[in-house]
Structure formats: C-alpha cells, structure tokens
Amino acid sequence: MSTNRFNRTRWLVASAALLVGLSACSGSADADAETDSDAGEAGEAAGEGAEGGGDAPLADLLPDDVREKGTIVWAVEPYYPPFTQSSDDESETVGINIDLAEEMSALLGVTPEVNAGSFDGLIPGIMSKRYDVGIATMADTAERREQVDFIDYFQSGTAIFVAPDNPLGIQSMDDLCGQTVGAVKGTFQVDDGEAQAQRCAEEGKEELDLQVFNEQAGMLLALSSGRSHAMLMDYVAGSYAATTEGGGAFEMTGEIADPQRKGMIVSKDRTELRDAVQEAMQELVDNGRYLEILDDWDQKDGALETITINDGN
C-alpha cells in the first residue's frame, strides 16, 4: 500500500455497506477525536499550500467556491477492492481511489473529505451537489454521460472467473449459456452478460441466468456457495480479489475482453472543477505518483498515459 500525503487521514464515512466478512466498524470517541485532529492538521497544511502556492501548484485552477470552502467532497463506493475497501483493522477506508483523492487534493490545496455511499447514489449525489467529485472507477458509458461528465483515469477488460479447477470447463462467453452468472450492478460486465444472454436465446441455447449484485461481496459469496457458476469481473480487480480476499476460492478462465474506460464523475455544470481535477490527475501521471499508487496495489495493467474527458466507448 502507498504512503499517503496526509499520513493516512482517517475518513469520515457517511454511510457504510453491510459486507459479508468485511464490514467497516464504527470508531470510538477517541478515534473520532483523532480523526478530527488529523483532518484539521491536513486542512491547515492544504490552506497554507493554497495561499503560498508552493505545496499546491494547481490551487488557482479551482473554482472560487471550492477554493474558498477549502475542501473537495469525494464520493466513493464503500467496497470495490483494491479501489476502496476497509483497512486490515477496519479503522479506515483505504485503496487506490483514496490515495488518488488525497494526492489530487494536495495538488489543489484543499482538504479531502471522503464519503462512502451506495453505487446507485453516486450520480444523484453529484447532480444534487451533495458531492463534488465521485471517484468510484465507474464505467464511462454514453447513457451516464447524459447526466454527468467523466474524467477517465483507468481501463480494464472483462474476464470470466470460476470456481477452483473450473469444474464446468467454462472457457468463453458462449460457455455461459445454461449457467448462472454473477455481475456487479453498474459495471460493464452487466452489459456484457446481458448481451451474451441475448446471444444464447437467439441461437436457441440454454438460458444464461444473469444475477446482478449490488456489491462485489455478494457476488463472491454466491460463487463460493454454489449459487452461481461463474462471475463477470474487471480483469484487474478480479485478479486482485482472487489473490487476496478470494483465498483461492476462484480463478480466471478464457480470454480478456477489450479494455473499457473508467472514470471519476462531476456535474455537467461544473466544468471548471472538472478541468481542475483532470489537470491534477494528469500531473500525478506526469510526475509518476499515479503509476506508483497503481503499482502499490498491483494494478499497473490498467494505467492510462493521458487523462481524458468523456472518452468511454
């Protein structure tokens, strides 16, 4: 894991998901006091950077309201390892998206405030201005671009994951006909599963029963318990899960689909904020911190060289 600019500021989580075996615990009063103290110190450092310019070289790019407020409210999905997840002692939220939010906030001279919420609530929260930026590795699709703007910062293709030793011999999407298959809501994998289910029907093959889960934990449990026969996941995220939380409970099979863009989201009427965040992320690419963070979490395969706007398929 990476060493964060703000020495692992403990995040105030607005709402936590109930996770199988990985639920985040509420902090004690002492922990909350430590959180407030750490956040205050981070805010002072950010404020000094914004005024002095040396530690916050991109502060002038922010819109006046955000710069005067002194914080950026980042919205994350609570559980999508290794992008967001609980720390080993369950005292804080960690992951790639947390590291990136901290680093970008430092460049922009503001304090990062990270709020975890349901995936379904991210776009409405951005549109209502409850959150400033959603950083949840969200699939950049044409339908979503009608509601929000995307800052694309990652890419990954779809892969099939099955139980150990692949007992059903699944090797391709066509082999999923007649099987029960899991995917996580809001990902490209749902679209891929629905497209394959339609192909199965058109070719007169057995039905593909696509089960869509709100979170990854439920999908993993369904496979391990035998309620599903395969999962469709991002290659990089799935590979990480297979070698960490999976504990040998599943493995990849077959080929990897073409990579798709994933992005942060910003309200369509906040173009100045969008462009400032894009510039901050591009600076992390150019100075090497972006790749270092991805490498810390074994996700270099999904790296982009250029951070773009609304560049999804």
Low-confidence stretches: 1-53
Share of residues in helices: 25-40%
- Biggest sheet, strands in spatial order? 4-1-5-12-6-13
Q: CATH homologous superfamily name of the largest domain? A: Periplasmic binding protein-like II
How are helices and strands ordered from N to C?
A: HHEEEHEHEHEEEHEHEHEEHHE
SS elements, strand count: 13
Give the name of the CATH architecture of the largest domain: 3-Layer(aba) Sandwich
CATH class of the largest domain: Alpha Beta
Mean pLDDT: 84
Structural class: alpha/beta
CATH topology of the largest domain: D-Maltodextrin-Binding Protein, domain 2
Q: What is the count of distinct domains?
A: 2
Strand content: 15-25%
Question: Could you give a quick summary of the protein structure above?
Answer:
By secondary structure, this protein is of the alpha/beta class. Helix content is about 35%, strand content about 20%. The chain contains ten helices and 13 strands.
